[in-house]
Queue: 4 jobs
Job 1
Amino acid sequence: MSHPLYIAFIWHQHQPLYKSPGSGDSLSPSQQYRLPWVRLHGTKDYLDLVLLLERYPKLHQTVNLVPSLILQLEDYIAGTAFDPYLTASLTPDEQLTQQEREFIIQHFFDANHHTLIDPHPRYAQLYQQRQEKGQAWCLANWELPDYGDLLAWHNLAWIDPLFWDDPEIAAWLKQGRNFTLSDRQRIYSKQREILSRIIPQHRKMQEAGQLEVTTTPYTHPILPLLADTNSGRVAVPNMTLPEQRFQWAEDIPRHLRKAWNFYQERFGQIPRGLWPSEQSVSPAVLPYIINQGFKWICSDEAVLGWTLKHFFHRDGAGNVEQPELLYQPYRLQTAEGEVSIVFRDHRLSDLIGFTYSTMPAKQAAANLVGHLQAIAKKQRESQSEQPWLVTIALDGENCWEFYPQDGKPFLEALYQSLSDEPRLKLVTVSEFLEEFPATATIPGEQLHSGSWVDGSFTTWIGDRAKNRAWDYLTAAREMLASHPEATEENNPEAWEALYAAEGSDWFWWFGAGHSSNQDAIFDGLFREHLFGIYKALNEPVPPYLKQPVEVHEAQGNHSPQGFIHPVIDGKGDEQDWDKAGRIEIGGARGTMHNSSVIQRLWYGVDHLNFYLRLDFKSGAAPGQDLPAELNLLWFYPEKTMVNSPVPLADVPDAAPLNYLFHHLLEVNLLTQSIQFREAGDNHQWQPRFSRAQVALNNCLELAVPWADLQVPPDYPLRLILVLADEGRFCNSLPENALIPIEVP
């Protein structure tokens, strides 16, 4: 009998603890929150995801709800949580101080403007004023109704389109402007109403069998690093570690037990699945997971690859070769017993997370279903007796901000297609494991120590700032240990502060790798939680906790920090490029010294395209201050192929300009026309068709499809830019170097 292809979607819903420790007591129960994301994502992302699914009863899925997220939702529902954005929203317009007005102008556009601001004319009008005229102009010229409308729209725009047919919400959207304090109070009531439905809806759908709800260690810590920070060296042997080794494995069962009990109270049953924070696993954490009673966990294909010493190659269409290795559950065997583990398809998960938002909804859904049908075909061809399980696991909140209508058209198209396709069957992980228990086994000690990010822990440890944070945490943990009288029963404040500080999110934002305009707030919150430990123990707070862990300033050169999807219009939208790699050109010495017309180079990727942006000096014009011809030359390291030299006169005989290249995209900056060529025999160049996009306005923006370059996923390539005038070399960027690019 041939099996359908089983598919397990796991959506991970998580926010760090934004609650300031020490706020909220019997005298003043209100809780001070530093940031609004629990409240705003709560109205936009958690309820609608499962309500949409409920309309397609054949489709079963898994949702992971982190305890620290649920705790904060409950504070907002109770009306005891107040963040600075909410406080401003509920302040009468005429009572707004100068400082509050500055805060509103700076932060009440914290949203993806393409999807959350631009669709609403009044919100878009205010945003354009700030972008084009600047914050100082707004502060000098805005009147009270402008502030009132901005306060209302920041809250309204984060309400999911699924709820727009609610009569009150529909009336506000139609009203558009002249919002009063009373309107804003009603919007806040509506937010709490939506939040209050989240947990009951998940519980109801779990009891009906369409949903499985899983949990995560209490405050989302990286368990392997709690067991031993030296586990960072498993994937990166030369990693620089913190000065003090953190080894508090005894905290692992505490986080697991708290999550387990917390879940039981809210869902009336015990959890079966555990999403280890950041899909981070190691041999050391397995006994604790097994002893707590969890039946299955999930991790990433990179962890499986390291464990099996197998690299998952993909074909030109992006489908996994040797799929039978990835698309099955495994039993992890230890002396304490065993636990099942599933490994997600990293690429399919990333396509939803980072790329499908840029495609028309039906086309994106068809692309994903096409991948699944191709896997189902391979399964039939393999004539395997064992069914296959494709696990697609990703963040269930942040990606939708980039989709039109918060992903509703995409999910509707996807769910309809999956409901109509008999050979594809969506299941919860527990459902699958109950019917088809794992047969493949992995000895527990063989499991790789790593996470979903490159199979390593470098996102949370190894960088100078991250290591400093670990040293601060170690000192605070040792201080708590030196007070054996401070138990969880008689000093819960100290332990809650510890659990919060052990959360993964602070380390994510420290140092290299990730950055946001709220880095300083995350830094402060981490230190506040540590501060709370000392305070609860009546110990003096170390002076270093009063200083930031790192200096938060704009970075110069840096590599890409995530996928980007810029609109190619030559305007250089700041949000579109905020995760791009950046190379400062203007200040470099040599041919491109600080009088350079080109000031900055930006670059990045998604699953469809390579993107490039060049920022020019104000007023620079091609053909005058700037050479009229830009050449992109692609170099493929360690690949045997036909290559040709740079086809220009006067090219210096120096690396990397004297390398041979395989692809060439010529951009005429005067006409914005392109010519694409591929290296041919005898050092010639052959014309090829290209779908590259180019736009020149206040900057140059380019998108080059991977399909033009005919490169498979997980492929390294290098790029150099050469400026020319009438076929003669002028200069190159970056100077004496190639830009390293990884095809996702």
Job 2
Amino acid sequence: MGRVRGWTGNRRMALPMVAGGAVVLGLGGLYVTGLVAGGDVDQGTRVRGVDIGGMTVAQARQALDRELGPTAAAPVAMKIGDRVEKADPAALGLSLDTEATADRAVRKGYDPVTVIGGLFASGERDVEPVIRADEDKGRAEVDRIAETTARAPRDGAIAFEKGAAKAVTPLPGVTLVEDRALTTLRDSYLRTDTSPVVLPVERTEPAVGAEETGRAMKQFAQPAMSGPVALTVAGKSMSITPAVLGEHLKMRADAQGRLVPALDSKGLLADPAVARPIEEVSRPPLDAAPHVGPDGTVVLAQQSRAGRKVTEDALGKAVLPLLTRTGPARSGEVATVAVQPELTSEAARLGIKEKMSSFTVEFPAAPYRSTNIGRAVELINGSVVQPGKEWSFNRTVGERTKENGFVDGIMINDGQYVKSPGGGVSAVATTMYNAMFFAGLKPVEHGAHSFYIERYPEGREATVAWGTLDLRWINDSGHPVYIQAQSTDTSLTITLLGTKKYDEIRATKGPRSNITPPAKRTGTGPTCEVQTPLEGFDVTVGRVFVQGGKEVRSEEFKTHYTPRDEVVCTPETPGATQSPAPTGQAAPAPSGHPRRPPQRGGRTRLVLSDGGERGVTLPARIVHAGSHGGPEVLQLGS
């Protein structure tokens, strides 16, 4: 009995022990299995849709590099207002840290409960990626993007092109909000949505919106271009097409933001389509033309006459109201105004009584001189200088260009003769200076040539240069001065008519001083001009004013002349010689210079630019040929 009891008791105790041992053994196996097969990351773990559950840290990092790496490196598309821009993530300071992301995804511990629980977990866990942001780089790139994408507001406007009105759509101004933009970019990095990231902006509405633009189109612009306008000028009809009108028509916003029309009346009046018909009916004023008669008295060869013209203001007042009308109502009359002549017959009779002065300059004939002097004379002749007003050579003659009627000639530059546009007009300046000098008028600006030219009076000559040197004088006679200018191929005369302020003007001249000998230079090339030598010197000239037989005042003018160096022109190619001219001819030379004879001794003819001929016996060597001052000179040497 005792044995049976003992067995029974032991059996009862053994069964629970066996069962407990089996459980322990089972859990231990699961724990080991979890450690071996479960990996570092729990099942169901994902990073932006990439499943890394059950992976080791190294496997998870490789998966993230493979799946998210391309997306992390792809350009970031951004919408800024209505523009789409792209930027490199590295430039924005953004990058994906896959190592830190994998570390974040691993289980929290390795105790049995955590490990065994990971084997039986059936839920999903999303882990956010670790994103690195470089603050300085990000702000610098956002600053750049803000600057390049900023847009000022564009007002609505009306454009007129080829006779049609076109509306310019208004657009709001757009400015990127930089601080919020940087945060938005970081939050949107690595998102699965491929559409551009909408960045925060501030908008500035235009002053002229779509509603005002539409109103201006309907009420003015479209009617303005609906057809031509018909005008009557001095009884003659003309029309202006929409295309011509549109060239000179604009609409501008006023202070209240309303688009109002603005007509460029000056441009419209100058437009050939308008100017030509208006010129046909306009009548320019006609100045009185004083003339010195055979007995020395001044008579009027031409009476003055008032003219009529259309002003810019009158044209604008006639055209602008017609632009919103239709049909026959788009017609009107343009008023003309009287234009008085600069010199009326009455003023001429009262103030231009006598010849104040007259001066003539002679010069060697040359085609360029005839052209340039003749053109300057044409522009000067008939000029009227009212009392107290200034006369200017450059304002009257204008720039010496081909378009203004001038050709290349010979001028002085850096102490040497060179080819230059308008060469020869210094003869006109010198003639005018002397006419002003002997009329007793007040000089304002003048300058002499750098070296002396023999055909001009010492110290009483002038030159001009566009933009740097002018010849200007003021009419201080108290009466109008009328300028007469005329020229031939070899001479130029300027006469001033008016009322003398002094009975007589006398000129004085002192001796030359500070004598400086010339040097010698050699030039080459087609622009080289031969030049005879002449000493440099200083000279003082005076002007004495005589009234009632007495000297009432005097003044002096000092002039410094640099030496005129001798310039010899040689062939451009070393060793080259000039070919002898055919028998009976001389080699070509620039106009205004004697033509160069053959460089051999013997008898030949020297043909001068003035048409004359001289027979000379040439020595073995020519020292120099040609002159710009006085008679043409051939200078010879042994």
Job 3
Amino acid sequence: MKTLRLGLVLAVRGDRAARVRFLLMAFGCAIGVACLAAVLCIPTIVAAHDARGALRDFVTARGTEAEHSDGLPLTMELSDPFGSRPVTRVFVARPGTGGGPTPPGVKRLPGPGEVLVSPALRSLLAEAPGLKGGLPGRITGSIGQAGLMGPDELYAYVGRTPQQLAHTSSDKVLRYGGTSAPYPTLDGQTLDILRFTLCCLVLLPLFVYLSVCVRLSAESRSRRLAALRLLGLSARDTVRVSAVETVCAASLGAVMGLGLYLVGNAVVAETGWVGLAWYPADGLPSTSTLVACLLGCPVLAYVAGRRHAREAALRPLSVRRRERERRPRAWLSALLVLPGLGIVTAYCVLGLVDKVPGPSTTTSFLVPAGALLTGAGLILALPPATAWTARRVAERTQRVSLTLAMRHHEAHPGTALRVVSGLVLLVYAASLTQGVLIEMDQVSRRDAPNQEYSVPYERLSAAQLRQAKSVPGVNEQALAGDLTDSPGGVFVGTCAQLEAFVIPGSMKGCVDGEILAIHDPVVPREPTELAGTRHTLRLRDEAGGPAGEKQLTIPRRTITVSVAQPSAVVDALVVVPPSALPAGTHPAGTDLLLSSATDQDTVRAVLDGLAAIAPTTEITPVGIVIDSLNQLAVIKGLLATGMVLGLGIGVAAFLVSTADHAMSRRTRTAALTLLGIRPGTLRAAQSAQVVLPLALGLVAAVITGKLAESSYLVTGGGAIFWDTAGVPLLLVSTLAVVVVAGLACLPMARRHLDPEALRKD
């Protein structure tokens, strides 16, 4: 208890510098804990999203339940993209009795002509009136919070009659509430990638930042502990006194950090600034997050301060006399960086020799492990690398400023780790983030000259067909049918229509009025699909009834085309002109194909126009995976937030450690000024002390970061292995960091002699 009381007295009732140091440690830990809580709560928010989606998922009646349950409502769900966000329309038909199960957030199912919308969709309808075409009826209410995955979800229940849904792919709803969300916010693999990236982007710099905060004024604190030891305090009690001060500051900072996170959660939750919107209650910290924040920060503070406290307790005279620091152990950094570099370099070599391993359980473990080991080893390698470089530069330079800076690094190599490690880790993590975004972008990117839309032909009336072909933005239309005895199909249209669905300039040999085989050099054909084989084409009339069959022989004359996949034209074996079919007939299983430009505004206008013509008909924008687009938008937003947090943490760690380092050198600065060193020379030496380790660390971060990024791309299964386009931006950013860091440390050099600093020494 005496040790505890002494530690509290020194922390709270010490001199002004001690109180300021205590408050700075607490506020620094608060910022770090707030960032830590934000990162750890992302899986909690995603889980809350998916739990709401599972509660509103419906269980359909099957077998005898469906046959003997006339009192169950009918439902059909359609989802269309609005930019990168899905617009979900659930068409429901209440039973004649008006009862039946209701989804969460809805008191009563809408009747025919009634529409219930989410608050976000209600707001969007005012900005994009074209969406109203897909919601036939008048808006009579809003969906409650319990029925939405998030406050920004675009969701609607549209009331219809049972007759209107009778001939659609509707189901009878037995009850609401499934075991899992049908469309999760982030799938498991994507969530694992996000965790790994945020660990590199935020948690590694955060660890460095917290270590810096709990070691503020480390030199003066060590000297004070050494004085206590020389006054007769035991070594164990000396370490305990230090632990009391750091743990108290860290504990106070942890509580303040959680409060700061809760305030930020309440302010940011529903805005969607981070790429994901949620209800504030969904972002409350879980028990594991509370334990990590409230216990992890004090434990880290204790571990970070224990080494120097033990040194002051065991070697008090050396600490008071400011003897040279021990040389850093290079083998410790090599123990981490060599295995990490070995893993990422091996995968890069496999990519160069075209022996790509692809995604697997082994690579999903080795690549993150290699990246984390490389990042940790990179930081631990800074002190020995800086000391070695400083020794070589000091032996060859004739400039006083460089000599002062290099000899300082040679005597105090640990300074480099505290000052620049946050910025170095930020640049290293930026390369990894770039690779993750490239890999995610390949999942949903469509490189095609046109956008295709597929609509079931027989679900459209004659009037709807005419209107669909004249929707603004549609530049061509055709039909795609199925062959009964082959997985391939037929393309019903003219040469001009076919040309609108292939890569411009790639079509050769087309003749209007003839049945011709389609040949794409990159699409293999089965033996049953080659020239001379016979197939059967079943026909339907305008009412959808049978209209006979047509025997079709694959001709030897071909049209050579190149199709941007995915495309409905890829499966077509032959081009059949409309005149080759009996009047008023079409192939069975026909889809109406429409083509438009690929810009987002045109795609949005076409989807809105088609939804207004046929609200209950499923419209498929070929090649647009709306779930992947939505996930990509969420990932980009969260990673951008992680980048901002990482940047803030890295800059904060740099500024705090630089200011603390300058304050701890007041005595040396005063002594050098007394010896006649000019202020300009002192400022140059101060800049060189920062620029040297920062330049070394950033060059190593760029090289190792690109290796780690390439290893991730090689094993990710995408087509891009080497991110050469991102190198110039990364180099410019790195150079800017060096320049800004050098300028930022100039004011830290004192411009006047401080006799008080010399008197205290």
Job 4
Amino acid sequence: MMSNGGVAYFSAEFGLDETLPIYSGGLGILAGDHIKAASDMNVQLTGVGIFYGNGYFQQHIDEGGSQQHLYHKIDPEASSYPVRLVRDAEGRPLVVDVMVGGRQVYVKAWSVQMGSVNLYLLNTDVESNSDADRRLTDTLYPSEQDVRISQEMILGIGGARLLATLGIRPDVWHMNEGHPAFLTLERIRMLSAEGVLFETALEAVKASTVFTTHTPVPAGHDVFSIDMMDRYFGDYYWQFGTDRERVLSLGRVGDAFNMTRLAVSTSSKVNGVSKLHGEVTQDMFRRWMPHIPRQDIPVESVTNGIHIGTWLATGMKKLFDRHLPSDWAVRTAEPEVWAAVRDIPHIELWEEHQRAKSEMVRELGLPLSSSGGGPLIVGFARRFATYKRALLIFRNLERLAHILGDPERPVCLVFAGKAHPADGPGQELIRRIVELSREERFKGRVYIVENYAMDKAKKLVQGVDVWLNTPVKPMEASGTSGQKAAMNGVLNCSVLDGWWAEGYNGRNGWAIEGATDGDLEYQAQQDSEALYRLLEKEIIPLFYKRGDRAVPMEWVNLMKESICSIAPVFNTHRMVSDYWHKLYVPTTVRGKRFASDNFEVASRVATYKQFIRDNWSGVCVRKADILADHSSRIGLNKTAFRAEIQLGAIWHKDVRVEAVGSDGRHGIWKVKLEPVQQQAKGLYVYEGASPEVSINIWKANVNVRVTPISPDFTTDFEMELAAWG
């Protein structure tokens, strides 16, 4: 068995290739790319997911444009990766059991070998289970809440038990989205069974866990009723060494249990998947911590990337092999490696793109002639969720018909994607596009490709000319399809949301600013107007501006700029390296420290937090004065602050006191105050001054804040507590 240590990476879906359809979209593809990069980089990592017997649905679009959902049994033999049943020392299938809603459910596991990384996939199709339980892991993201919570218990609890049975003891537990968060409860239960107190176990688990959140969309966060939690966790509450209320408090939001909240409560590091998404997530989590300003809510960001080996067209790869340094494929995160793209002759890059385009047209059965570089093909392929606004380009049908129908400069739109079986509005989008594609003015100009999956995604990101992305800003957490397109020389035209807000440099594609004010109707009006203008004035003229040899030289310059600026940054080698340095290494160190000497640090932190919680109600800011603009000896303007703070039983070295104000630019400034005298037991005077803060103090919304701190916390806001004046 594997040695101890390393990272356990849990995800509800993994997109490895189209032969294993156990993914529905971006989250799964990202998880697949993450473990492929970990294997390339020899990062010690073990993946844990679910083997869905019938996978995600195959899509058929009928005559009326309605999406039909077809499920086929997955054949493990068909995968391009070796998939094997996990067996015990005696050669029998290894089985773990999980209590689900009062029933013992037996779970077996398949293992998929990805280079140096093992991915374990759990499945309940075991003879000793009832028929209903054998079907629990049949389909991905079932609509029935009972099946959904059962799957998440199998993933989190069953996954943790499987690793324990295999003798794998990870240093870091990484939850990719909230679906696997029950693993933290199972780890607390295991420690409790060894006699570790609940609060100590919670601190030890927290210290070694990281959580990546992927969506600002409420539907992406699983929520279960308290009644349902009681039904499914009634057998577990007593095993945690605490009461039901305390267990539920870890995930309780209002009168429901929120899996994202559970994940945040039990992790020491939380990250979003782009810089902008990190901020959006802080806004979202603020409702749980209303007295902490958004800027201080502890969320980091690691921007998603893609696995270049998986998504790069074969011809492009050969072109890079000829022109880039020989070891370019293992040095993808180094900008200087990609600089050589600028020296590739324009005609070679253009012809390689034409080959990928012809192959896409042939493979997807599009009735288009792709000779001579035309028509300009714009691709839009992703999940049909309403916030992604597939219909934005159709807002002004006359104008669009005029844009697409120019016989001198033909343009085609190609759409692909699935809508979740329970998402009626998403399916309506597909129906509408089918309807429009049949209108006389759009015939031969608008196409929809059915059953979008990894095989078709590859052809699209490699073969279209422009990749279109028009989400409602800031709803796109990251988005990675545009990164796949960029590596292949396809140009992005996207709302400045998710990764594109970081990737766009003014010379490597086109940006739609993305209106965020006004209602959705107004935003759509602004954004569609910007899109039409870009197509009419910039994109189409540039594509059809041909020199001798029929190569659009300026367009190819943009292709080169796109590859050089995007490829080295938005790839999974850079991403996994960021996870390694920012999350995995510090968490490994912290987890080991908290567990050493019989959980000495975890126990101390638990006791300290309990003391702070018990006494926090006694903390208050009695009086706060701003003594503006004291001229100091060196003639600088200083703003001084003075506050009287009641700390009660809490020691003054266990809190941070600071003046906090708005900088007027969505940021905040802080000035630390120090205790200068003790007026009575537990009552202190704090003072501080800052030369920097000479802004208009009365408009800055200044206040004084007290927060509990400890050198053992990962952030000053770990306890989610603050007392304000």
